[in-house]
């Protein structure tokens, strides 16, 4: 499926071709690829180099972690994410390890690590679908997440299934054109809301 972003300015091709499918193949993800995905996350930038991200990873066929991650997702996400061979939960540490004070950048930095992971996945012909539709309390109970940490997001990782019939609602959703706000709606200059002169 051709989903390359119709960019208004040249960008790295890996960024342009990254997209989030709903229909995953049961094909397993190689261990070496998963290691590289999380190595990419490891090298994300973070405030004070705190690296406040943590990931809980479930691989289908390896224990019950995949099923437990799935159980923490909203019903709508469970419906399609169950097919992905790898499911993960993104967790952030609330406080700075260096001082014990609250880390205002923790969620942001988890996002940076997740973005690194998604780009490395794209480079390896894998897909990542990020989800905010999870139950943090269920994740805390299922995985004994401590009080100074919080489950924020989940992700499905795997290969896009291209062989299935295209009539499902998910297929139709996937087929919709990609779109983004134009730069002048979010890149500002002299005042908030006033487009920057780029």
Describe this protein's structure.
It is a single chain. The protein is α+β, with helices and mostly antiparallel strands and 198 residues long. It is built from 7 helices and 4 strands, in the order ααβααβαβαβα. It has helices at 13-17, 31-42, 65-71, 75-81, 106-123, 136-143, 169-175, and strands spanning 53-59, 86-93, 127-131, 149-158. It has a 4-stranded antiparallel sheet with strand order 1-2-4-3, sandwiched between helices. It is globular and about 55 Å long. The chain starts with 12 loop residues before the first helix and ends in a 23-residue tail after the last helix. The mean pLDDT is 94.
Give the strand content: 15-25%
CATH fold topology: NADH Oxidase
Contiguous low-pLDDT stretches (5 residues minimum) are none
**Name of the CATH class:** Alpha Beta
Assembly type of the chains comes to: single chain
By DSSP, the count of extended strands is 4
**Number of continuous helical runs:** 7
Placed side by side, the strands forming the largest sheet appear as 1-2-4-3
Basic shape: globular
How many domains, in number, for the residues? Answer: 1
Biggest sheet overview: 4 strands, antiparallel
SSE topology string: HHEHHEHEHEH
Q: Gyration radius, to the nearest Å?
A: 18 Å
Distance between the termini: 33 Å
Average pLDDT rating: 94
Indicate the percent of residues in helices. Answer: 25-40%
Q: What structural class do helix, strand and pairing data support?
A: alpha+beta
